[in-house]
Amino acid sequence: MEKMHHIIIAGGGAAGLELATQLGKKLGKRGLAEITLIDSGRTHIWKPLLHEVAAGTLDSSEDELEYLAQARWNHFRYRLGSVVGLDRERKEVLLAPTLDDEGQEIIAERRFHYDTLVFAVGSQSNDFGIPGVKEHCLFLDSTEQAEHFQQNLLNSMLRAHTQAKPIRPGQLDVAIVGAGATGVELAAQLHHVTRLVSAYGLDTIDPAEDIKLHIVEAGPNILPALPPKLSNAALRELHRLGVSVHVNQRVVEVNEQGIVSASGVVIPAAIKVWAAGIKAPPFLRNIAGLETNRVDQLVVKRNLQCTRDDDIFAIGDCAACPMDDKGNNVPPRAQAAHQQASTLYKTLVRRLKGKPPLDYTYKDFGSLVAMGKYSTVGNLMGGVAGSMMISGFIARMVYLTLYKMHQAKLYGWPRALLISFLHFLRKGIDPQVKLH
């Protein structure tokens, strides 16, 4: 009996999970290929929502997807573990041992053979080697980190509420380094959340006086990916919310007291969040001789194949994919990962038929930045109208639709709409913010 073609997808983020689900339905269900998804976590949540998990306006336990269940429903296999090595000669991936919270081994080191390998391991924050960032900053690269931030914030407020001494200046201040979408969205959410928590009984805290929110940006503008008109609109909204925005302030040090910039400005803050810059996971650096760039992304061709191995592909934030002939790469955005997953799905189906891979072309459909309950700004691109700027309620609805499209890829539209309906029903019985 001929051995079935084995496709391994390393990484269960939006791109990897969508790809595994589609391939499972198309190939796995029919016995045309074996599909395996490998991820170090047991559940998935859409990464653009992590700032809401961090703020506490989204309970991850209600929105997360169980990999084992998704695999069962969609005819692929799920393996728990972290890829740490690659043997291209034997065509095997190496998984590190899986440990529990006490450091005890649950699953021993393993190797899995592949015929086609896809890296979709995403990205993580880039601290650029700046002193003190790792030691004193919180990150929002995973659900666990976002939940850790939420607990840290809530515990700080509980401590301040019950202490005998007056709240000291800066005790509850939050500084966010990086004025991209994550930083701006988090700041707006925190403004809303700190007032909600105070209203739920922590009334000795005056959010307007005791909690100061800062955004620190090395460049001259916030939200550099957006047109200036929308960036300025978001800036006005942040100022209206009382968020202090510090532009042209390149961070050179982070210490226990706060943030230090190259110009000598010191921004005091008890809680520091790093949301500036990304890089691929460090285990990819020159892995098995594959070509990587300075931020450890795998360099791929337009067809998403790695430059030094046609049996290995990379998509999403971990891939350096050419966008044009000028040397520009596809930006690390959720829409790009979604598009690449769709293109690679078609390529891998064609691959089993002996057909050549398809080239991927990036289509920019615009950007949206949700500022909590207060506003959403963005631009939609394409069509006859070209670029159209939107804000307010319409922009918020478009933003929510993007998440629904991701859910529909994973569950189908009937179930995605049912999930939305159940969330609507729970609004009447759940607090507006997670309080534990």
Question: Which structural traits does this protein have?
Answer:
about 425 residues, alpha/beta, FAD/NAD(P)-binding domain, 3 domains, 6-stranded mixed β-sheet, 5-stranded parallel β-sheet, 28 strands, about 35% helix, globular
Explain this structure to me?
It is built from twelve helices and 28 strands. The chain is α/β, with parallel strands linked by helices and 436 residues long. Helix content is 33%, strand content 23%. The mean pLDDT is 90. The protein has three domains: 6-123 and 280-351, FAD/NAD(P)-binding domain; 133-274, FAD/NAD(P)-binding domain; 366-426, no CATH class. It is globular. The strands form nine sheets. A six-stranded mixed sheet has the order 5-2-1-11-24-23. A five-stranded parallel sheet has the order 13-20-14-15-16.
Please describe the biggest sheet, giving its number of strands, its sense, and whether it closes into a barrel.
6 strands, mixed
Task: State which percent range the strand residues make up.
Answer: 15-25%
- Taking all Cα atoms into account, the compactness measure Rg is 22 Å
CATH superfamily of the largest domain: FAD/NAD(P)-binding domain
Tally of individual domains: 3
User: What is the fold-level CATH name, i.e. the topology of the largest domain?
Assistant: FAD/NAD(P)-binding domain
Report how far the terminal alpha carbons are from each other: 55 Å
- CATH top level of the largest domain is Alpha Beta
Tally of helical runs: 12
Across the major sheet, the strand order is 5-2-1-11-24-23
Based on the structure given, which CATH architecture of the largest domain is correct? 3-Layer(bba) Sandwich
Share of helix, binned = 25-40%
The counted number of beta strands is 28
* Structural class estimated from helices and strands: alpha/beta
Mean pLDDT: 90
Ranges with pLDDT <50 over ≥5 residues? none
Overall form: globular
